[in-house]
Specification:
This protein has 179 residues and is an alpha+beta fold. The chain is built from 4 helices and 9 strands; from the N terminus they run αααββαβββββββ. It is globular and about 35 Å long.
């Protein structure tokens, strides 16, 4: 029996000094090697950092963008969609510029830089729609029904002040709305 144990230890690559130890001491050595902890490949801190980065990415993608359009007397709040055009407008804020009447159902203003319409949905403009008309590069605030038009893209919808849009006149400020 001792010879079989010695041969099995020798075949497993056990150092020669274990061959001369009694069987009970050899079992202790085997039991000690079984208790060696498994080394983790990443620390809890690293996992925490990765989870935090994922959360911040999700938060940025899901962030609700609201803007406030104000004049001396009126305030209108819009919630923007997640299109690149809406994000481009949001990134240019704050702006102070002139609002202009156009037709009988809309007010317009011109942001300093054109908006990227590559993923913006076409608009079906109603009272309270915020849109972008790409040929003229202007933002349109509808205060009455318009419907669909080629090159008219949806940016968002009014959440407060729908009846005030028509009353806007002269200089306005467009800025990020903080709840």
């Amino acid at each position: 029996m001792t010879i079989v144990i010695i041969l099995s230890f020798t075949g497993c690559g056990t150092p020669e000094k274990n061959i001369e130890q009694p069987v009970s001491e050899q079992n202790n050595v085997l039991n000690q090697t079984e208790k060696i902890p498994v080394i983790e490949t990443e620390t809890k801190q690293e996992r925490g950092d990765e989870e935090e980065n994922l959360e911040s990415t999700e938060t940025e993608e899901d962030k609700v963008m609201k803007i406030k359009v104000t004049s001396k007397e009126y305030e209108i709040i819009y919630e923007l969609n997640q299109s690149q055009a809406a994000k481009d407008l949001y990134a240019q804020l704050p702006l102070t510029l002139e609002v202009k009447d156009l037709s009988t159902n809309e007010k317009t203003f011109y942001p300093p830089e054109e908006l990227d319409i590559s993923d913006a949905p076409l608009a079906n403009a109603e009272k309270g729609s915020l849109c972008y008309y790409s040929p003229w590069a202007d933002v349109v605030m509808f205060y009455d029904h318009f419907g669909q038009g080629s090159s008219l893209y949806e940016l968002g919808e009014v959440v407060s002040g729908k009846n005030e849009i028509e009353k806007l006149n002269g200089a306005i400020t467009v800025e990020v709305y903080q709840n």
